[in-house]
Design goal:
The protein is mainly alpha-helical. Helices cover 52% and strands 2% of the residues. It has a two-stranded parallel sheet. α1 (2-19) runs antiparallel to α2.
């Protein structure tokens, strides 16, 4: 927020200088040029680097998870005979037998993930942060993945009870502003559901058949029967 305000104040100052008499001098023009470059760099930091950095820091993988995803594939890693260890109280595949038992499960479903909350992340590619993307879903033998549509996060959230936050007091509002999300996602709860849902539809189209959206009970029955 402070960086955003500084960029705004600097922009106004430079514009005033540019259109004033002092703006005609060579020195003023140099100052304006340097200021414009500084604003561009700051804007890149706020609107590009900051969302990516926040995603990586809040959704960092544990050492255990990194060991698995650093290999060409999870299957190759485990079946090569290398064991996992539990780090940071994580539950990890530990032996070849565990992995093979998981692969024999007829249907694996994960009923929650917040991947759609991070629009800068490419879910068609393997990521070094976060827990869900199409390559790792395939390797994990996940048949059904439920994507959550997050419409509100109270600033003082707790596990017992939370009042519905207003848009102004919601933790997501500033996040969506910095990410330059559509105004509907910034200003309304419905928009916060529709915008990521449309993003999921685009992901399904880009997946070349890897991802299918379940819309009806018949779709679900067809998936289970496959």
């Amino acid at each position: 927020v402070v960086l955003f305000v500084c960029v705004l104040v600097t922009s106004v100052t430079l514009l005033k200088m540019l259109f004033s008499r002092r703006g005609n001098t060579t020195t003023a023009r140099v100052v304006v040029a340097v200021g414009v470059v500084a604003i561009a760099v700051a804007a890149h930091g706020v609107f590009v680097w900051m969302p990516l950095s926040t995603d990586r820091s809040l959704n960092a993988l544990t050492k255990c998870e990194q060991d698995g995803t650093s290999a060409e594939s999870l299957r190759d890693y485990v079946l090569a005979g290398r064991s996992f260890e539990a780090y940071n109280n994580s539950i990890c595949v530990s032996t070849r037998a565990d992995f093979e038992a998981h692969e024999r499960l007829p249907f694996v479903a994960d009923l929650h993930c917040d991947a759609l909350l991070w629009p800068k992340r490419d879910l068609t590619a393997r990521n070094r942060h976060g827990h869900v993307d199409l390559p790792r879903l395939a390797e994990g033998n996940i048949a059904l993945q439920v994507f959550a549509l997050v419409t509100g996060v109270p600033k003082k959230m707790n596990m017992i009870s939370n009042a519905a936050p207003s848009i102004a007091s919601d933790s997501l509002t500033l996040k969506f502003l910095i990410e330059l999300q559509p105004w509907a996602a910034i200003s309304t709860r419905m928009g916060r559901a529709i915008v990521p849902a449309l993003r999921l539809e685009r992901l399904a189209r880009q997946s070349h058949g890897q991802l299918m959206i379940i819309r009806t009970s018949n779709d679900l029955r067809a998936l289970v029967a496959r």
